[in-house]
Each structure stands twice: as structure tokens, then as C-alpha cells.
Design goal:
The complex is a heterodimer. By secondary structure, chain A is mostly helical. Chain A contains 14 helices and 2 strands. In chain A, β1 and β2 (about 70) form a beta hairpin. The chains are: A mainly alpha, B alpha+beta.
Chain lengths: ~325, ~450
């Protein structure tokens, strides 16, 4: 709701149509043209399955037989499903711990890179690489090796006399390891932070220097406030992305969400229900609950943004 | 150093807010965006193309397994197609884990493979939902005369013949004699050894060998092991009607022995056990020369032996003469089934007939899908068996007189039990559930899964 309010506010601040210059109007046309494939794809490929899943969420559907209507039974069942509740705890923990850490790492590196190192383009690419690789099956398999009981990490720890646990095979550590994997894929938000940092006018820093502001002061009073729209943008995207995390947990746990359900992400449990337990109706209902959760959190994000995001316009 | 061109552009900032909104909506709607990374995908050719010419058929054959099986099966299919030029067989294979996810999806999409490899845990799931065709209807093409009745019966459920066993198997212990020798421990007499002997031997081997070499691999991830344990005590995993046939105490005892082994060092730590289990036969303790004993199916002997590069022996389960009766049983290794809606049922039945009854096929397949179910074919190819195949054939022959009866076809939902077993076993190994609580949770979850 507040998201819609945002849109309305945006439209207002944009002014009336006749203030647009012909070149701006041309820009809009071009934008719509370039967005068209995405909208057509949304209509054809996403909307159909979306509506189908809404229907299926009210049915008992084994995948092998035609679905039969059971009303809200699937939704009621969720109230009394301990594994579902566990998967929510796992997912929320993952989102609320790993996303802030990931954004902090991204911002820190963006600040370092923004200072204009020699070979900046190379560093930027190198740090961006994990973002591209992080969600892949190959990396998840690699991590399973590196973080195994006799893996690289524990071999290094052994050199300093420490005995490491099974990072992905012990239920107390497995989720933490997946969070580290997510933090490691900080490249995409980092690039966006870098772009944002470059939009902060240099004159603010110069003026504050004259007033005797130190580095910390500059960061807290200039960089952070002016960067809040970017932080907000990254936060929204990363929260949604983290809720949908699937591949890493699927591969690292062999599809089971193990050990002992410690990495049973919501999406993984949904997948298990849909494709392993012949319970696509329940899985569809779960998908809709996920959509509601993500929408609610995003709306909350937009609502609270007016208290801390500074648009300077 | 003011090296950047810093611009103040309110329009762009507003754009940012809009971008956040649009991106958020897009991402939330397309759940799992960019994540299509389900491993094990393979060539997924479309099987139901219209016939190219009169009398020609294209059918799809789905199976799971190791790379060796894929190569051998492809060779068999090439031979089949050479013999039946009017039939084209499209291969559709994947690993065990991906297989069931994929099969369920293709069935839902109305694209059921014409010939499907099935397993007992899923046979009823698919048969009772009308996915599989009754093979009795194709007796003109499909010859079952050389297959033992008791074996054929294993594929009968819900009033039809929905699968024909590919071959027989037994769940047994694979033992590495070299490690027994290294540890200075005698091989047990597997006809008389007890569960207490098993624990003692495993513990002793761990104690007498280097770090990283263990007496046994944890057995708790696979419920057939428990089925045998329960049968020895006169109970059973499933009754004929699909209800559970064991007491919580028996299951708790099974896990207590497993914990005893872990605590005495007979098996690795819980974390290592999880990793070893994930590695499959090749990465098992016996497969990597780091353990003396592990429970596997007899048709996995070859894969484990090859990985180990050593002589691996088959042993009976402990406790076979300790209680009321023997617990081991012959299991149909897998089944060949046919899609109920196959466009070319004739061709599909012809392929199944070839796989079951052709000596040429059996010579290639040997015991990879279990010891051939067709007794004549088995006799004909027996002398071509490798030493390992021969060993499992002899082992099964010895068991024949001891085995009391087979297992009933597991109930609908039994496919989920594998996952439940795996998860609860991890809970037990990490001391998050006591064996007794675990047993009660197992019973309640399995009863829910199987609708009892």
C-alpha cells in the first residue's frame, strides 16, 4: 500500500506532462520500447503460471492426477506444520543476518574502491565475480569441499592447532556457512554503491574539511545520508533475493535441507513438497504465502524508508 | 583527489526509487529468479513427436544410475534399435536424486516416458494414480515365462502388473578384508554373528587402525536396514495393508546400537558420517579404503569394489540367527514399467521384453540392475560374469534357503520415508533427539506420509 503511495508521490513530483521537453518524451518512448520484452515476458510466461498456482493452492494436486478442489485446507495445514515453521525460522535468520552483513561488506569495499586505486577496473571485476558465481551449482559443490570436516578450511585451522567442525555437515554450523556464502556475493550491491558514491558532490566533502570534519564525521554526516536511497534500493533487492535462496542449500545439503533440517530454506521445503511428496497443491499455497511475506516485508521497507531515506530532492 | 565527476541529479535519484519499486515487484513475482540450478538435468528430448512414417515408433526410456550404467544402457539400446529398425528409443537418464523430481514433473506435464524405471518405494505412488499401464495387456509381446512367479508378483499392486523386476538384490554388508587383516581382527562367521559382535568388531578395528580408518559406516540413513532388523525380531517395516509393523522400542534399539558405535569410535563422528553418506557408494568408507564394513545393495558391489580397488567381500547382516527368524530378503532391484498413456504401447512392451529376455542385453548389463530376473538368461550369461558378479550371484544363491519371505509392496508415500529416515537419523547422530523420541517421531511422520 505504501509502495503505491510512493508511486503516486513520484508521479506528483514529476510535474505535469507539458513540462517535458521533446527529448525527454523521446526518452520515455525509448524506455517503454526497451521494457516491452520484459512486460511481454511477464504477461505470457509469469502471469499464467502465477494464476495457475493460485488455483492449485486451493486443490489437492499430486502432480500425477488431476487437481481436486479442497478450499483453504492447504492454508490451514500450514498452521500445524512444524517443518514449515522451522523453514520460516531458518529463512528469516538467513535473511536478517546475511543481508545486513552483505550490504556492510559491499559498502566497505565500494568505499575502498571509490578512492581511485590504480587498476580499479580489475578490482571491480574481481570483487564482482562472486556475485556471478555465488548462486551456481559448481560453487556450492566447491564450498561443500572447502568446508568439509577434512576440507581446506579445517586444514588451515589445524595448522594453528584448532579443530574445526564440519562446517556444512553439522547442524549448528551449516546455516552460518551458507550465510557466509551469501555475504561473499556482495559484488552486485557493491557496484551499485560505487555508482552512488560517485554521485555525492565533492563540494560537500571540501566544505566539511574546511569546517574541520574528520573521516568518520564525513562518513556519518555526508556519505551515509546521501547514500540512503542506494542503501534502500540494495536492501529491498537483497532481502527479496535472500528469501528466494535455493540453489546453495539444495546442492550443499543434497536437496534435503539437512543436516537435520538446519538448512531447510522455505523454498527448499516448498520444492520438496511439490516434487518429492506429490503435494503440489500445498507447495502452491506455500508459494503464495512466500509472496505475501515478501510483499509485506517490501511494503514495510518502503513504509519505514521515509524515516531514514533521504532523497535530497 | 577529485577525480570523479560528481553530479547532483534529482531526477536520477527519483528514478532510483522507482527502480527499487519495479525491481522489487519483478523479483517477488518471479520466485527463484535465475535459479534453475537443479543438478542432474540431462538430455530431455521430446518423446511424443508424431510418427515419421507408418509403423515407425519413437519411445522414450527413463532410468537413473551411474555413468557406467548410462554407457552400457545406451549400447543395449543401440543394439535394440538395430534389431528393430522401426523403433527409435530416446534415452532419458539422470542420477538417482534428480530422477524422481524429474519424473514427477514430466508426468505432470503430460510427457510421461514410455518405459519407466521404477523402484518399489514409488511403484504404488505411480500405479495407484493411473500413471502406469498394466503390462498383462501386452502378454503377446512381453514374455514372462522364464521369470519366477514370486518375482513377478513383486510388481503386482492395485489390481495390475505395473512393473516387472529387472533383477534381484539383497541388502548386505560389504567388507574390506584387507582392513580386517591390518587391524588383526578375524573375519566374522556371518551366519552366526550377533549385533553385539558387530559393535565389538567395528570398535576393535577402529582402535587397531590408523586415524581416519573406521570399523564401520553408520547404517541409519537407509530404512531397508531397519526392515531387516525388525524382521529378525518377528516384526516388519510395513504390513501387507501398508500399516507399520514394528514397535517404537525396536526402532529405538536400532538407533541405540548406532549411537553406541559412534561413541565407541566404531563409526566416524556425526559430521563425517553426514558427508560420507552424501558421497554415495564411491565415496563410502569401504569405497575409499577407510572403513571395514558398510551396508549396501549387492548390485553396488561392483561400484564400491572399483572405487576401493580392492577385493570386497559380502557378509550377511549380524543377528540373522540371533532372534526369531532371519531378516534378509530379496528385493526387486528396480522395475520396468510402462506409461498408461504411451502412444506406442506395443513398442514400449517390445523394449521391456528385450531388456528382460534378450541374452545380448543381459551380456552387457550383467548384474548392474540386479541379478537377471529371467532364469534362463541368468544361466546363459552366468559364466560371463566378472568375479564380482559371480560373487554376488553365489551369495544370493546361498541366501535362497535362509530367506523366509519377501516384503510386501510398500504403501503409497513410501518414497518420502527415505527422506524422513535420513533427517531423523541426523537428529539422532547429533544428539538432538533421543533414540526413543526419534522412533516415535519417525512413526508419526511415516504414518502421515503413507496416509495411515
Amino acid at each position: 500500500m505504501s509502495a503505491l503511495g510512493e508511486l503516486a508521490a513520484l508521479r506528483k513530483t514529476k510535474g505535469t506532462k507539458d513540462t517535458l521537453s521533446p527529448s525527454e518524451r523521446g526518452d520515455n518512448k525509448a524506455a517503454i520500447f526497451f521494457l516491452a520484452p520484459w512486460f511481454i515476458g511477464l504477461g505470457l510466461i509469469t502471469a499464467g503460471p502465477l494464476l495457475a498456482s493460485l488455483y492449485l493452492s486451493f486443490t489437492d494436486y499430486s502432480l500425477l492426477e488431476a487437481p481436486s478442489w479442497i478450499g483453504v485446507e492447504n492454508y490451514l495445514r500450514m498452521l500445524d506444520d512444524p517443518r514449515l515453521h522451522n523453514s520460516l525460522v531458518v529463512t528469516f535468520t538467513y535473511v536478517f543476518v546475511s543481508v545486513p552483513l552483505q550490504l556492510a561488506a559491499a559498502l566497505a569495499l565500494a568505499m575502498v574502491l571509490d578512492r581511485g586505486l590504480r587498476g580499479l577496473a580489475i578490482y571491480r571485476s574481481v570483487y564482482y565475480l562472486p556475485s556471478l558465481l555465488g548462486g551456481s551449482v559448481a560453487i556450492a559443490i566447491l564450498w561443500r569441499q572447502i568446508f568439509g570436516t577434512n576440507g581446506l578450511v579445517n586444514q588451515v585451522l589445524a595448522l594453528v592447532g584448532l579443530e574445526g567442525p564440519g562446517w556444512v555437515s553439522h547442524p549448528d554450523y551449516a546455516l552460518g556457512t551458507l550465510m557466509i556464502l551469501n555475504v561473499w556475493t556482495f559484488g552486485a550491491p557493491m557496484i551499485i554503491f560505487l555508482a552512488g558514491l560517485r554521485q555525492i558532490p565533492e563540494m560537500y566533502y571540501e566544505a566539511s574539511s574546511i569546517d574541520g570534519a574528520g573521516r568518520v564525521r564525513k562518513f556519518v554526516s555526508i556519505t551515509l545520508p546521501l547514500l540512503t536511497p542506494i542503501i534502500f534500493f540494495n536492501l529491498v533487492l537483497q532481502v527479496i533475493g535472500a528469501f528466494q535462496a535455493f540453489t546453495q542449500a539444495f546442492v550443499v545439503s543434497g536437496g534435503g535441507g539437512g543436516p537435520a533440517d538446519s538448512t531447510l530454506f522455505y523454498t527448499l521445503y516448498l520444492y520438496q513438497n511439490g516434487f518429492r511428496s506429490f503435494d503440489m497443491g500445498y507447495a502452491s499455497a506455500m508459494a503464495w504465502l512466500l509472496l505475501v511475506i515478501i510483499a509485506a516485508l517490501t511494503a514495510a521497507n518502503f513504509f519505514f524508508s521515509k524515516y531514514w531515506v533521504f532523497y535530497n530532492d | 583527489m577529485s577525480h570523479h565527476t560528481r553530479t547532483q541529479n534529482p531526477g536520477r535519484r527519483r528514478g532510483m526509487r522507482l527502480a527499487a519499486l519495479v525491481a522489487a515487484a519483478g523479483m517477488a513475482l518471479t520466485a527463484c529468479s535465475g535459479d534453475s540450478g537443479v543438478p542432474g538435468a540431462s538430455n530431455d528430448d521430446d518423446g511424443d513427436e508424431p510418427p515419421a512414417a507408418e509403423g515407425e515408433a519413437t519411445i522414450r526410456f527413463a532410468w537413473w544410475g551411474s555413468d557406467t550404467r548410462h554407457e552400457v544402457t545406451q549400447e543395449i539400446l543401440d543394439n535394440f534399435m538395430a534389431e528393430h529398425p522401426d523403433i527409435t528409443v530416446v534415452s532419458d537418464f539422470t542420477d538417482w536424486n534428480g530422477y524422481w523430481d524429474k519424473l514427477a514433473t514430466t508426468v505432470a506435464a503430460g510427457d510421461t516416458p514410455d518405459v519407466i524405471t521404477q523402484e518399489e518405494r514409488y511403484l504404488r505412488d505411480y500405479a495407484s494414480r493411473g500413471v502406469l499401464g498394466d503390462l498383462n495387456e501386452h502378454s503377446d509381446v512381453l514374455d514372462l515365462s522364464n521369470i519366477d512367479d514370486s518375482i513377478i508378483e513383486a510388481g503386482q499392486t492395485d489390481g495390475g502388473q505395473y512393473g516387472i523386476p529387472t533383477g534381484v538384490n539383497a541388502y548386505a554388508i560389504l567388507a574390506d578384508e584387507q582392513i580386517f587383516t591390518d587391524a588383526g581382527v578375524d573375519m566374522p562367521d556371518d551366519e552366526t554373528w550377533t549385533w553385539e559382535d558387530y559393535v565389538d568388531i567395528a570398535t576393535q578395528i577402529s582402535a587397531n587402525t590408523d586415524d581416519g580408518v573406521f570399523g564401520a559406516q553408520d547404517y541409519g540413513f537407509n530404512e531397508p536396514g531397519f526392515a531387516i532388523f525388525a524382521r529378525q525380531r518377528g516384526e516388519s517395516l510395513y504390513n501387507e495393508d501398508g500399516s507399520l509393523g514394528f514397535s517404537a522400542d525396536t526402532l529405538a534399539e536400532w538407533w541405540e546400537i548406532s549411537l553406541q558405535l559412534r561413541d565407541q569410535g566404531g563409526t566416524p563422528s556425526a559430521s563425517e558420517t553426514i558427508e560420507i553418506d552424501a558421497g554415495g557408494p564411491e565415496q563410502s568408507l569401504v569405497g575409499t579404503n577407510s572403513g571395514a564394513m558398510a551396508f549396501f545393495w549387492t548390485n553396488q558391489l561392483e561400484a564400491v569394489s572399483n572405487a576401493a580397488g580392492r577385493d570386497i567381500t559380502l557378509l550377511r547382516h549380524p543377528g540373522e540367527s540371533q532372534f526369531e527368524r532371519t531378516g534378509m530378503y530379496f528385493k526387486p532391484a528396480m522395475f520396468y514399467s510402462m506409461a498408461a498413456d504411451s502412444e506406442y504401447p506395443e513398442a514400449a512392451a517390445t523394449l521391456i521384453d528385450y531388456l528382460l529376455n534378450s541374452e545380448e542385453a543381459a551380456e552387457l548389463m550383467l548384474s548392474d540392475r540386479g541379478l537377471p530376473a529371467n532364469t534362463e538368461v541368468r544361466a546363459a550369461v552366468q559364466d560371463q560374469f566378472s568375479e564380482l558378479d559371480q560373487r554376488s550371484a553365489d551369495f544370493l544363491a546361498e541366501l535362497e534357503d535362509e530367506i523366509v519371505d519377501g516384503l510386501p509392496v510398500p504403501p503409497v508415500g513410501a518414497g518420502e520415508v527415505a527422506e524422513i529416515t535420513r533427517r531423523i537419523n541426523a537428529e539422532v547422530l547429533f544428539d538432538r533427539l533421543s533414540p526413543q523420541d526419534a522412533a516415535e517421531q519417525f512413526i508419526s511422520e511415516v504414518e502421515t506420509a503413507t496416509g495411515q
